[in-house]
Amino acid sequence: MKTSTSMEKHGIQWTARMQLNDLDIVDDRALLSQTQQQMQEKTISVAAASATVGLNIHKGKSKILQYNTTQHASIRSQLTKKIWKM
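^ that's the sequence the OP posted. Answer follows.
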């Protein structure tokens, strides 16, 4: 997972010197990105890395949460089911 999420700076700025790319929540993972394009790239990367070790992302559990944005495009993937906007 670390390889698929930390290759480029696509997270959110956490401190002056650190970006937060994802959160581990029990057996789930929350991916964090600043832009729609970055999230698309990260989603594809995580799906590809998971597939190489025989894991699949559960489509029914995958969600998108958009916060403080004017963009309404969804991530083009079969991995996501709903779009939530706050």
